[in-house]
Design a protein that fits this description.
Elements lengths: L3 H15 L5 H8 L3 H13 L3 E3 L6 E3 L1 H16 L2 H13 L2 E8 L2 E8 L14 E3 L4 H8 L3 H10 L7 H13 L2 E4 L6 E10 L2 E11 H4 L3 H16 L3
Antiparallel strand pairs: 1-2, 3-4, 3-8, 4-5, 6-7, 7-8
Helix pairs in contact: 1-3, 5-10, 6-8
Length: 237
């Protein structure tokens, strides 16, 4: 577990990943955190209405203040729709599911998604997360985060930050400017992701997901379409 300053946010992000009320015991097990410590942080989050509790079941869930923040984010997103338009263009051209992912704590978080119209498609939802070490989106985000942030992620997932193979993988992803994964997080799914960097700041990553069978046919063109769109976004003001 990370330092004290991180723990409140780790708890909040973990509760958000469940998508439904959860018992404190389950949360304690998943985070490997003692119940006594966990209750102390939960109390703080409840005071700020970031978490709330069902008095009958004693389960906790995302609170009204968190929902207010999410609502404000949705309004801001509508005002700045360039990413949404980019995903629409990509989905129309490639026919595949496209997402915009951002690093959130120790996870990659989907903030925008445009699903494929194909009968056989890869599904992803706004608000869905995945570990910041698995999948094309996560790897391309992690590779472009500051070293100190990478160290925290490595420690959180029990990885050796100084492992030569791991460091070489991060360096290669940065040099390539994209990441490809096959069945890395979801079986039978190919993902390609490109970082969006403006003024040396990592804004997020745009990602295309496709069933591996369909990805075998002409996916090089899909990669080029993704790179072109990313280039436009990176140059946006």
């Amino acid at each position: 577990m990370s330092n004290t300053n991180d723990k409140v946010f780790i708890i909040l992000s973990q509760v958000a990943t469940y998508g439904k009320p959860v018992s404190v015991k389950r949360l304690s097990k998943d985070l490997n955190m003692p119940l006594s410590s966990l209750y102390r942080y939960i109390t703080l989050l409840k005071d700020w209405l970031l978490l709330e509790e069902n008095l009958s079941t004693r389960e906790i869930y995302i609170g009204s203040m968190s929902l207010t923040l999410a609502s404000n984010h949705e309004r801001a997103k509508l005002e700045n729709s360039e990413y949404q338009k980019a995903l629409e263009r990509l989905s129309n051209v490639t026919g595949e599911t496209c997402m915009f992912m951002v690093p959130a704590g120790y996870h990659a978080l989907c903030t925008l998604c445009r699903e494929s119209s194909e009968a056989l498609r890869c599904s992803f939802e706004v608000g869905q997360t995945q570990p910041l070490i698995k999948g094309a989106s996560s790897k391309v985000l992690l590779a472009n985060l500051p070293k100190e942030r990478q160290k925290k992620v490595a420690k959180y997932y029990g990885l050796n930050f100084h492992d030569l193979q791991w460091q070489q993988s991060l360096s290669k992803t940065r040099r390539d400017g994209f990441s490809i994964s096959t069945s890395d997080y979801y079986a039978g799914v190919v993902g390609v992701s490109v970082p969006i960097i403006r003024k040396k700041h990592l804004c997020g990553a745009i990602t295309i997901m496709a069933p591996s069978e369909r990805a075998k046919k002409g996916f090089e063109r899909v990669i080029q379409d993704l790179m072109n769109e990313a280039s436009i976004l990176c140059g946006s003001r």
